[in-house]
Amino acid sequence: MYKYTALPLVLLCCLLLYACAQAQPNTPAQEHIKALSQGRATAMQVQTQTGSVLEIYTATQGSTASLYLEGNPTTGFLWHVLSVEPQGIVRCAQEQFSPLPHAAGMVGVGGIAAFSLQAQQEGRAKLTLSYHRPWVPSEQATSIALMLVVDAHLGIHIKPLPALP
């Protein structure tokens, strides 16, 4: 008798779990992987002030753009927006980090830091980002600079700038 009443409850639980899983928004890492697989993300090499080269990814759609950078906050290093100058051309939201897919139980896994850019008006703005541990002020940070060009239709175009001094 109980095995016939338990089956509908098990099916209902499975359906609810499936629905909840489908309702979750994509993480920055999932968006990054999706953009790459759909050919919407563009790889760009940017030179840091120390001479090393980072590969970053951008995906633009109309007046919004996403900037994807690899990072690992478990080491204490985080990406930070140092400046967007002049202000009023592009609004930049602070990073959202999500780990890359990994086996259950793994710790210290790197992932993707995503910044959302929103065009506000036509013009050019310089975006400067830094990768550092905020509590170590004397530490040399890795910095990169990008030129954000907003066209008359509020489309965003991202170009690397020469290495910072």
Question: What's the topology here?
Answer:
Layout (H helix, E strand, L loop, with lengths): L1 H22 L4 H10 L3 E7 L5 E9 L2 E8 L6 E8 L4 E3 L3 E4 L11 E9 L3 E10 L9 E9 L5 E5 L5
Antiparallel strand pairs: 1-2, 2-3, 3-7, 4-8, 5-7, 6-7, 8-9, 9-10
What does this protein structure show overall?
With 165 residues, the protein is α+β, with helices and mostly antiparallel strands. The chain has a single domain, classed as Immunoglobulin-like. 19% of the residues lie in helices and 44% in strands. The protein has helices at residues 2-23, 28-37; strands spanning 41-47, 53-61, 64-71, 78-85, 90-92, 96-99, 111-119, 123-132, 142-150, 156-160. The longest helix has 22 residues, at 2-23.
How is this structure best summarized?
This protein has 165 residues and is of the alpha+beta class.
Run of helices and strands: HHEEEEEEEEEE
Annotation, overall tally of beta strands:
10
The first-level CATH class name: Mainly Beta
CATH topology heading: Immunoglobulin-like
| Integer average pLDDT | 79
Q: Looking at the chains present, what oligomeric state does this protein adopt?
A: single chain
Question: Please, how many domains?
Answer: 1
The CATH architecture designation is Sandwich
Q: Termini distance?
A: 77 Å
Binned strand content: 35-45%
Query: Shape, please?
Result: globular
What class, by secondary structure content? Answer: alpha+beta
Please compute the radius of gyration using only Cα atoms.
20 Å
Largest sheet: 6 strands, antiparallel
Instruction: Report the helical percentage.
Output: 10-25%
